[in-house]
Amino acid sequence: MACGIGAGALWGLVFLAPELARGFSPLQLSVGRYLCYGLIAAVLIAPRWRALTQHIHHRQWWNLVWLAFAGNTLYYILMSNAVQTGGIAMTSLVIGFLPVAVTIIGSRDRNAVPLHRLLPSLLLCAAGAVCIGWQVLARPTIAANGQQMIGLLCAIGALASWTAYAVGNARCLIRLQHVSSHDWNLLIGIVTGLQNLVLLPLALVLETAQHSTGEWMRFGAVSIGVAVLASIVGNALWNRMSRLLPLTLVGQMILFETVFALIYGFLWERRWPTSLEMAALALVVMSVFSCLAAHRRPAAIERSS
Q1: Average pLDDT over residues 164-179
Q2: How many domains does the chain have?
Q3: Which of 36, 94, 181, 283 pairs with 210 at a CA distance of 20 to 30 A?
Q4: Are 253 and 7 in contact (CB under 8 A)?
């Protein structure tokens, strides 16, 4: 759980990147982040590349390709487009159901906690997601209905993409006991970097705004910082947690990304949370503790018998 909380704390920093590098498009931020991620991963893994790749078979390489695409490249692009066309509130509401989706899928695993025991946690999680976006949803929107529909479809696509990544990545880590969670993260980083290298010309062609040297330096600093903290360290903590916890509890740990993103947002805006935001934070914490209690119950029964 400590690894999951640490990953959420570092992933929450990603939501500050657009504010720290204003004027750059989401595609540019994505390409900058993941190119840095891939380059740093390549440098870290270079000394043991031959020894490590001997244990990676053809099937695992294909797993790395689709995990990098689903969990990084595709997810970020879909999420960014959803925010731009459908709004932050709608996007946060849809993607806020990630823990619910992952937990429901994980409940079908062998020896998993039954779904009915996880129902209180899932309801608390859903209520927290609704609170997060409710006050913004209540505001009038100037977006056209067609744009709202495109945003909704992108948000649903992002939800499906990261759900597939969370489930597939956890199951790959369980099967690959001969590869450390840190090395697996570095391999995903290299593949993600190669994918975004292909997107680099597109990002340059679509960007027409002119930026000063200082803006480019800040963009580089933000890209490197997010790559190191969120992608290298944060993903390593997440992979470590994925090997230690059942998938039904892994899903709940995603909530901490939302919690820390909200906290960082409050600090950035220099304000206290509203009543709905406080309610969302409380519901998220209650959801995690409820899920933890459901997983501890079998062990407690076994000891008492």
Answers
A1: 85
A2: 1
A3: 36
A4: yes
Residue 304 lies in a domain: no
- For 192-203, how does the pLDDT look when each residue is reduced to its tens digit (9 = 90+)? 999 999 999 988
In a domain, 302, yes or no: no
How far apart, in whole angstroms, are the C-alpha atoms of residue 206 and residue 231?
A: 25
Nearest to 13 by CA among 195, 191, 272, 268: 268
Q: Is residue 303 pLDDT above 50, yes or no?
A: no
pTM of the prediction? Answer: 0.79
Q: What are phi and psi of 177, to 5 degrees?
A: -75, -20
The residues near 202 (Cβ < 8 Å, ≥ 6 apart) are 27
Is 303 a member of any domain? Answer: no
Contacts of 71 (CB under 8 A, 6+ apart): 161, 162, 165, 166, 169, 188
Q: From CA 229, how far away is CA 7, in angstroms rounded? A: 9
pLDDT digits (tens, 9 = 90+) for 198-252: 999 988 887 777 888 888 899 899 999 989 998 899 988 988 888 888 877 777 7
| Alpha-carbon span 281 to 258, nearest angstrom | 9
Cβ-contact 155, 90 below 8 angstroms: yes
26 belongs to a structural domain:
yes
Amino acid residing at 59: R
Q: What does the pLDDT look like over 63-93, one tens digit per residue?
A: 999 999 999 988 888 887 777 677 665 666 6
Q: How far is Cα 103 from Cα 240, in angstroms, rounded to an integer?
A: 18
- The end-to-end CA distance of the chain, in Å, is 27
Helix (H, G, I), strand (E, B) or coil at 287: helix
